[in-house]
Amino acid sequence: VPRMPLTCRPVNLLLLLLLLLTALEIMVSAHSLCFSFTIKSWSRPGQPWCEAQVFMNKNLFLQYDSDSNMVKPLGFLGKKVNATSTWGELTQTLGEVGRDLRMLLLDIKPQIKTSGPSTLQVEMFCQRKAERCTGASWQLAINGEKSLILDAMKMTWTVINHEASKIKETWKKDSGLEKYFRKLSVGDCNHWLREFSEHWEAMPEPTVSPVNASDIHGSYSSLPDTWIILGAFILLWQAGLWPLRMS
Hints:
With 247 residues, the protein is α+β, with helices and mostly antiparallel strands. It has helices spanning 9-27, 75-82, 86-108, 165-172, 175-201, 225-238; strands at residues 31-40, 50-56, 59-65, 70-73, 119-129, 132-142, 145-151, 156-159. Residues 206-226 have low confidence and may be disordered.
């Protein structure tokens, strides 16, 4: 089998380096935790005004509702977390955050153009890689319309729906609220993610839940490990750095 000309080897070496860096990125993969809240300004008796779902690497493993004020574990990871001391802390925090978010919804309700009950969908996201927090954010949707995103690492707001501009300005002026958002996402969420990651690594073969958190959060390589390794070997051989003997 003919080898590629020597003049092509620098290109091959560059591609090989990129492949190896991608493989390293996968080996040191990021873990993410997402808390998804649905808050209602009004609910019928016996129906929860707050529902929450918690995702680890886009896998649903916890559910919470304000009616029962209890956290329900789901799957292998949920059962593992249920047996830890973090469980009580998590239950309490979900209830507190739900109440705080409902107060925010009631405060901004006069600015929402609707005559009936309003809803606030909130996703708090954090990500860890190489033993450090590499991302933290909040996404807020009002009555099903994506409205605001807060980058809690840089503390910058992004307005998605122009109708939420006034709400953003109001919240941006509230330094206590911004500190609250940052503490929860960069602090508490990151702390739980570090603990849950240990249980995640012990899982047999995690599979993605049919119910996923929003795709705007987190980024993972779409290249399978096998193809990356195969590509690296091919480029090594073409560059003459990997001997291949034909019998």
